[in-house]
User: Fold these one by one.
Assistant:
Number 1:
Amino acid sequence: MSHGAAATLRHELIGFSGVVQRNVYLVKRYIWWDVAFMLWTIANTLTIVFIARGVDVSKAQENALATKFLVGGVIWAYLGIIFEIVTETVAWERWEGTIEYTFMAPVSRPIHLFGMGIFAVLYGIVRAAILFVAVVAFIGIHVPHANYSAAVALLAIASISFIGIGMMTAVLPLISPEKGTQLGFIAQGLMLVVSGVYYDVSVLPGWMQWISKISPATYALRGSGLAWADVWPLIVLGVVSVPLGLFVFRTGERYAKKHGKLKRSG
Amino acid sequence: MFAVEVHNLRKEFVRKQGRGLRKKRRRVAALKDVTFTIERGECVAVLGQNGSGKSTLVRLLATLLLHDGGAARVFGRDVFREQRAVQRLVNRVSVEASFFKKMSATENLSYAARFYGMTGAETKPKIPEILRRVGFPEDRRHDSMEHLSRGMQQKVALARALLTAPVLLLLDEPTTGLDPRSKLEVQQFIEEVRRTHDATILLCTHDLVEAEILADRVGILDDGELLCLEPPDDLKRRYGSATLEEAFFAATGRSFEEERDEDEDEVREVVRS
């Protein structure tokens, strides 16, 4: 590697650490907000898991249903937060007023967005672990045959696609400062509906089942073990969504610079 | 090589007017063929009313806008084609000190410096030193930015800009809205930067006294056109005026206090309506 390339790589890695460091500082400063959000997520997941306790079926079926709801809730809590953090990359900076300083800094956009993505993964892992332990302790579900290592591997692959899709929606507030963030929420809601978080996608209308095929959450949730049928679509979605996400973001940034929308007040 | 070289720079914004089907688009020029150069180590002040194009000029040089014509170079680098290279050379202080409000001054400076390739080990001794130099109180370094006065926030903004040792410093109304004491402290620090750093400064300001004290040359930007750019005394002589304010009036036909709509903000407001 040439001296120039090594210097550039070093610069980018330091910039990458800056993105992660900034988000860690923010979590520390907003810690009580994070605690409240965590409690809300636990309560929300418990509400869904308790539905299984109210169904008139055998004990074994009830446990299986509660486990499905728990797994769905935890996986969505993890993937949803990745999507949310990456999606709010621009909206958050605009709200804080730092957008101009971040976008005029000599950090490449892929490094900036991947920094957000990696932080989101770390944050999501901590939240998902707390959620899982809290709900299992509260409701007393037995998951003796759970393949945790396979689930973690599947989620790791799915995370890449979620970062890529998050990049595409992150650009929306740059294009439309007023409506962009709301559109991001709509995209997240749509993915929740079609991915079969709490039910099998086969119950969905045909056209929704078709959309579910391009949602990475579908394969992450369906996966039992590391089945190739679930792994390969996730790899394809990851390989496609990240470059596509970067392209969409770059195009949106260029549009914002052309039309004077890259500013704190929109 | 010039520090800044701007040639026939043009920027337009699309303005939408009317409602529903009657909505019409028209292009509004924010900068009209602006041409000037700045020597290395020089401080140039640009005077103009709100909406004259000052912020547009700064935002173009800061790589936050794309141009519609002409060219701009910073130390020989094309602002629009070599953005990353230009970003390494430039930093900016704007009228609003923009920070993550819950984070402290030290935290804001620490992460921002990493964006410019400075490691934690490098910034650890530099941050307290630069905050001391801008006159920021030592016991407030770990307080949230939201608990600091505007004057203190602006000092942190200056510290953030200088921490990365930029060779071109863009100051967009850095003292607007500050109390007289904070204003004087910020101005004194800008003077110190001029003396001690190898920095070129482009200062956009409303403050005529500030321009006269700090700048080697003063330009008047009016309705997107740069009417003149010369040393303050030459400017006064050219218009036969005793003060810069009179010179501004003679050049533009308007008093300096007259307000015009903010260029891009105006466009946005019309779009929203």
Note: Residues 3-259 of chain A form one domain.
Number 2:
Amino acid sequence: MMGHVPLSWFLMLSAVLFSLGVAGFIFRRNIITMFMSIELILNAVNLTFITFAYQRQQVAGHLFAFFVMVVAAAEAAVGLAIILTVFKNRGTLNIDDLDSMKN
Amino acid sequence: MQLWLIPILPLAGFLINGLFGRRFSKGLVNTFAIGSVVLAFLWVLKTLFGLGGMNAVYTEHYFTWIQSGALTVGFDFSVDRLTAVMLLVVTGVGSLIHIYAIGYMAHEGGYYRFFAFLNLFMFFMLTLVLAANYLVLFVGWEGVGLCSYLLIGFYFDKKFATDAGNKAFIVNRIGDFGFSLAMFLIFRQFGSLDFAHVFAQAPAAPVGLLTLIGVLLMFGACGKSAQIPLYVWLPDAMAGPTPVSALIHAATMVTAGVYMTARSWVIYTHAPIAMDVIAYIGIATALVAATIGLAQNDIKKVFAYSTVSQLGYMFVGVGCGAFSAGIYHLMTHAFFKALLFLGAGAVIHSLSGEQDMRKMGGLRDKIPWTFGVMACASLAIAGFPLTSGAMSKEAILLAANHHAPWIYWVGVFTAGMTAFYVFRALFMTFFGKYRGEAHPHESPPVMIVPLVILALLSLGGGFIKVPDFLRSVFPAVEAPESGALTAVAIAAGLLGIALAYLMYVYKPGLPDAVANGAKGLYTLVYNKYFVDEIYDAAVVTPLVEGSRVVLWKGVDAGLIDGAVNGIGARAKGIGQVLRLAQSGNTRSYATWVAFGSVLLIFLMAVLGGLR
């Protein structure tokens, strides 16, 4: 089936997902949403890896995708824990209010 | 022969009194201060008798002081006949002045400090005299300058005293600059600073270089021995206690320049131009200082200018090749000028600090002993026949006549003026009616006894025939004895005395009439030719203002501080701009990251990284 869909479509999809992720990270203020945006970015990259791996018939792209998934899982665990703690301490999830490093 | 003991004894006195003198009684301070100097004198006597004829230079090497490349300087002392004369003058007259100072300083504060400095001075002066090379001599040379500074500024709570100390120190630095350059040249040419080595090779050296060395050495001597153009510090140096004026600024330190010049006679005899310069400077100084001395009213100032003038005579002697005559006059001058100063000190002491001769007069009956010794010293300096001053001055004038007759005639004229101003001082102080309010009292015996000894030396010291004694040291001067020339010189002195008697005793109204008659000239002389003012305008003010405006405000505050502050301000400014990036806002950071990534990709595309 892949043979009928051109390579550029997969890359275009990946780029669109990546851009959506970046836009979401920059423009949304809720930490959870931003977190999901990061996941979107990572998976957009994963899609690119897989696409190229299939096209070039090499296993390295797959391996990278697995690596990214493992890191994303670990990041999700740590990140969610941090978000929980922040919410407990500050009572907010608005990223603009978390600026105690300033001044 | 343990030469090192001679200077070490006063040094020990200095250390003991300087460190512990504050807690000592005056008697104990006296014991160490006077004891050490008298012991040094006795040790000098023992050493000289032990050495016998001293026809060869006797040298002692203690340790190698500096060893650097080709330069080797040993801490060496040596004694020859010239050193012997200087040693006896310095320790002998020095001892007498130390004893006198017990009485003079009895009521002054800082008693132990005074004697400690005086002993330190003796140490450096003896080092200077004993040195066997130029560098050790220079150590003593600078050391006596330091002690001079310390003792001129002894009354350090008085501004004029500290100013005078600074002036002496700074003016001497100018001369020492010349001395240092001369030493560099000597080392460059001869590869050594030892007298023996340098003088052995000097005859073979190029005349031009020897002349340069001679003139530079003379520059140092001009500073130390107060010759034109560097004489200005000596009159001001009278701000110190009178025993200091007598010891340092009349008898010993100021003659160091003459001694150094005479010591370097081998260089000078091969550099006739340098010799001539010395003779001209000497005679000019003698004349100018004598004219200034005519119109001074402060008794110590009169004798200060007289000292400058007499040092000019010594320079004339040395410059005319009569080195032994210069040293002869150095010795007799040490006797009678020390006596004049100490006598003036006794007068000042008896009048509780009055120095203005216009407020003295008639003291002849009130302090007869002081008057007697002052009269002896005045006769000696005026060149009364058979006194010490007459004999040594005659030796110099004969040599001057042999060298260039005009120097002789200027010298005779100056001798007449010398007799006039010294007897003017004597008559103003001791004759006529007393014009002050204090109650004069005779000085204690501890002051009078040294004065009497010095008076005897002033009268009879000329019979210590220094030129004969030094015949083996210096080249012979074939100046013929001349009864006529001697008579003229003596007549000039007697004329000066007679004129002073006429003006200040016989017709007391005459001086004012003369001063009014030649008002311009009198003002000029009274104000010392405005030399201090000229130096101030020509040298001091430009230097101070230049330092203030250019070096301080311009270079230091403007350039150096400006560069340092500027760097700081730039760093701060850059930080102000960069600070804006650190907003603390997570989304703005993310924007920066995204923006940076886009920029990187764009750059890679432009530079051909993406294909």
Note: The interface with chain A takes residues 582-587, 590-591, 594 of chain B (CB under 8 Å).
